[in-house]
Design brief:
This protein is of the alpha/beta class. The chain has one domain: TIM Barrel. The protein contains 10 helices and 11 strands.
Length: 281
């Protein structure tokens, strides 16, 4: 079975989904084992997370990620810290602690419909001091603008046509191929992407637990591309990116053993039900 690395993985709960969507660390490992995912870059839920206590809730969510990375450093080589621009200076100071004391290596953020770019700058400045990794869930145009302003940061951007157009010449932007919701056109033009940006910066992104990434794996395995490109997208490029931040890390050779044996229904039914709801509207 081909090795896979998921460069876009969430641990935590999104309360804005109905039913609530999410996973804890154990279930994440179970899904990874079931789908042949050898390792993942993880961060908290980037939208719909608990915020009743503000910066304290964000701190607790980041603590889950830091703990998972410490406990399973081979499976979770990089953890990203959730940031909330609504927290202002307190959030910036909290981010600095996550990067300096808790071992997280970058930031994860979701605009949630409002994204005043300049309010991100203090957070990204802290991350740039550590030459961190950023997964912003932003539009391609804004990612391009931010990537030019912060050349010391490395960005992961959804590989949509706009991103290919405006970000392909930016060396600090890497592209993720993420499953789109069921009912939409979920077939990626892998050959076209390789022709436009090369095969060195394209990576597999599961966006777990919101999508069943086995669907994207099937799309990649059946794509009309050469095996070297398929391996690069599945794991080789991600391994290269991870080693920029963790030079000591190597792709685990042994099979992943999750903390318990899950049934197929426990692993995937919730996501299948949620995707059916998406497809109904």
């Amino acid at each position: 079975m081909r090795h896979y690395i998921d460069i876009h993985c969430h641990i935590g709960m999104s309360i804005t989904y109905d039913p609530i969507a999410g996973q804890n660390t154990g279930l994440c490992l179970g899904r990874m084992a079931s789908a042949g995912i050898a390792a993942a870059i993880i961060g908290p839920t980037a939208v719909g997370s608990l915020q009743a206590r503000g910066v304290l809730d964000t701190r607790d969510q980041n603590a889950v990620i830091a703990r998972a990375c410490r406990q399973f450093p081979d499976r979770f080589p990089i953890g990203l810290a959730l940031i909330e621009i609504r927290h202002g200076v307190a959030g910036v100071e909290a981010l600095e602690r996550e990067l300096t004391e808790n071992g997280l290596m970058g930031v994860m953020w979701h605009p949630g419909g409002v994204s005043p770019e300049r309010r991100l700058y203090p957070f990204l400045e802290v991350a740039a001091m550590w030459k961190g990794l950023c997964l912003l869930h932003e539009t391609a145009a804004k990612t391009a603008s931010i990537a030019r302003r912060f050349p010391n940061l490395t960005f992961i951007q959804h590989a949509d046509p706009e991103a290919v157009e405006v970000c392909r010449d930016l060396e600090n932007v890497w592209f993720e191929i993420v499953q789109v919701p069921k009912g939409a056109d979920s077939k990626w033009d892998f050959a076209g992407l390789i022709n436009q940006v090369g095969n060195e910066r394209l990576m597999f992104g599961g966006d777990a637990p919101y999508y069943d990434y086995r669907i994207l794996q099937a799309d990649l395995e059946s794509a009309n591309i050469d095996e070297e490109s398929r391996d690069r997208i599945a794991h080789k490029n991600a391994a290269t990116l991870i080693q920029q931040f963790r030079p000591d890390w190597e792709l685990p050779a042994e099979k992943l053993s999750p903390p318990q044996v899950y049934t197929e229904a426990e692993l995937w039914t919730a996501e299948e039900d949620r995707l059916r709801l998406v497809d109904a509207f």
